[in-house]
């Protein structure tokens, strides 16, 4: 029940009242709160065990699971259950989340890119490694890979490495000059340059030229 509703009824709950908890503007029966916490925590743990690639239990799924009277209460329930929010999902804090069967394939891509940072694998190579959108998204969430437009996959360090090379070019530079400096293809260079533009690291001057933002 909302505290303001109790006030309107002229009822006061003592601060040390047994069996109830104050969560924000709500008073909640402790057994009910315990049940909510147990259900949402069990769902998070169970999903992680069943599907290592899952990002966690979504906020919407958690709300359906506990059916709290106010979505605001979910934050308090998650905290009571020892859970944290990550990008809209509930997860266990500090939990080790691997990539399951995709681990070896992602490691192979990492090894390749460590030797040649801008040699992004082609789509058929990713398919051969059984790395689809779901596996790549999980690798990106874990900070293992970086996905760009056009299904281009690089290491998270690629933007910084690219800036080192682009800063050495005469300014402004063309896409072709950037591509040659990075030793890569237009398939990789264009979405990478667009990412650098979006981050404010480079600036597009016209249809054919960019410059490094000093």
Q: Overview of this structure, please?
A:
- By secondary structure, the chain is an alpha+beta fold.
- The chain folds into two domains: 3-91, Arc Repressor Mutant, subunit A (Orthogonal Bundle), CATH 1.10.10; 102-212, Winged helix-like DNA-binding domain superfamily/Winged helix DNA-binding domain (Arc Repressor Mutant, subunit A).
- Helices cover 48% and strands 14% of the residues.
- The chain is built from ten helices and ten strands.
- The protein has helices at 3-8, 30-50, 59-66, 73-80, 103-115, 123-128, 133-141, 158-166, 175-182, 186-199; strands at 20-23, 26-29, 57-58, 84-86, 89-91, 146-148, 152-154, 173-174, 202-204, 209-212.
- The strands form four sheets. It has a three-stranded antiparallel β-sheet. A three-stranded antiparallel β-sheet has the order 8-10-9. A two-stranded antiparallel ribbon has the order 1-2.
- Strand 6 and strand 7 form a beta hairpin.
- Helix 9 crosses helix 10.
- The longest helix is centred in the first third of the chain and has 21 residues, at 30-50.
- The relative contact order is 0.08.
- The mean pLDDT is 89.
Features:
about 15% strand; alpha+beta; 3-stranded antiparallel sheet; 2 domains; elongated; Arc Repressor Mutant, subunit A
Explain the layout of strands and helices.
Blueprint: H1 3-8, E1 20-23, E2 26-29, H2 30-50, E3 57-58, H3 59-66, H4 73-80, E4 84-86, E5 89-91, H5 103-115, H6 123-128, H7 133-141, E6 146-148, E7 152-154, H8 158-166, E8 173-174, H9 175-182, H10 186-199, E9 202-204, E10 209-212
Antiparallel strand pairs: 1-2, 3-5, 4-5, 6-7, 8-10, 9-10
């Amino acid at each position: 029940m909302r505290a303001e509703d109790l006030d309107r009824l002229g009822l006061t709950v003592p601060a040390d009242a047994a069996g109830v908890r104050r969560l924000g503007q709500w008073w909640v029966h402790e057994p009910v709160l315990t049940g909510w916490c147990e259900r949402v925590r069990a769902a998070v743990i169970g999903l992680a065990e069943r599907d290592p690639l899952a990002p966690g239990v979504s906020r919407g799924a958690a709300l359906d699971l506990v059916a709290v009277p106010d979505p605001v209460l979910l934050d308090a329930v998650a905290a009571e259950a020892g859970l944290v929010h990550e990008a809209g999902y509930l997860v266990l804090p500090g939990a080790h989340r691997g990539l399951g069967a995709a681990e070896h394939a992602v490691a192979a891509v990492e090894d390749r890119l460590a030797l040649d940072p801008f040699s992004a694998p082609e789509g058929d190579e990713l398919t051969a490694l059984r790395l689809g959108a779901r596996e790549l998204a999980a690798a990106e969430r874990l900070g293992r890979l970086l996905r760009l437009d056009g299904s281009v996959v690089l290491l998270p360090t690629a933007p910084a490495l690219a800036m080192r090379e682009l800063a050495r070019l005469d300014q402004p530079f063309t896409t072709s000059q950037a591509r040659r400096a990075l030793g890569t293809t237009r398939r990789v260079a264009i979405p990478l340059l667009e990412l650098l533009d979006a981050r404010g690291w480079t600036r597009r001057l016209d249809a054919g030229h960019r410059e490094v933002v000093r």
